[in-house]
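step=encode ok
step=design start
structure_in=
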């Protein structure tokens, strides 16, 4: 079974727990959310979400993906699987998770259930749980799946939460996180440097006030929505 891949590239992780770390990114195509609240194009990786770009996605086997990421292993990078929504293909991606020697992060909206007993290597993955808040424009019942979130957080304890913030969303964040103890990172909403700089000071103070971790978005600050970064 082949996986639709939007792009594979080597770069610096721009946000979250491992910001600044050299990483090889595998960006899959397709998502189960649209996030219209994040602007006209929705996701900042719109080309991996919008099916209008489907012809640009390449169907690849795990072996073909491994061959491509093998070009960068001399740098001892983390592997970051992102999208789109990677967990649409959690069964197909599993051999890659099993065989990669190093840190694996999966950037996910945490809405798709995984059987951690059947696929135990996912317990070693660092899930960057980017659960969508109301500013995404998605309805609550689509974007917040509490049992799925709890399963990721407890079965893969190195995982963390990553929220896009542009106003006081503490109540929503606390609703999502509940009594889970995984770290909470908040990032300023922004599809370009200008919007990022407008929201960043508020998010910085918001994190200080609530004891959350602040995460900048290095790639957006430097390159905007450019692909391959």
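sequence_out=
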């Amino acid at each position: 079974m082949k996986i639709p891949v939007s792009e594979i590239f080597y770069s610096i992780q721009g946000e979250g727990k491992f910001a600044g770390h050299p990483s090889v990114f595998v960006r899959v195509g397709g998502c189960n959310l649209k996030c219209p609240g994040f602007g006209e194009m929705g996701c900042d990786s719109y080309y991996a979400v919008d099916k209008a770009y489907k012809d640009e996605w390449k169907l690849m086997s795990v072996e073909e993906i491994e061959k491509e990421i093998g070009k960068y292993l001399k740098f001892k990078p983390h592997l970051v699987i992102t999208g789109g929504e990677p967990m649409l293909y959690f069964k197909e991606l599993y051999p890659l998770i099993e065989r990669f020697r190093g840190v694996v992060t999966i950037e996910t909206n945490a809405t798709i259930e995984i059987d951690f007993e059947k696929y135990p290597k996912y317990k070693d993955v660092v899930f960057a749980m980017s659960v969508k808040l109301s500013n995404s424009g998605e309805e609550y019942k689509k974007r917040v799946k509490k049992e799925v979130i709890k399963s990721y957080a407890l079965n893969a304890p190195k995982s963390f939460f990553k929220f896009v913030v542009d106003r006081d969303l503490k109540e929503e964040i606390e609703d999502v996180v509940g009594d889970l103890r995984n770290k909470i990172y908040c990032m300023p909403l922004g599809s370009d440097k200008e919007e990022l700089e407008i929201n960043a000071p508020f998010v910085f103070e918001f994190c200080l006030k609530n004891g959350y971790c602040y995460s900048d978005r290095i790639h957006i600050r430097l390159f905007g929505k450019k692909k391959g970064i």
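step=design ok
step=annotate ok -> The first helix runs from residue 62 to 69.
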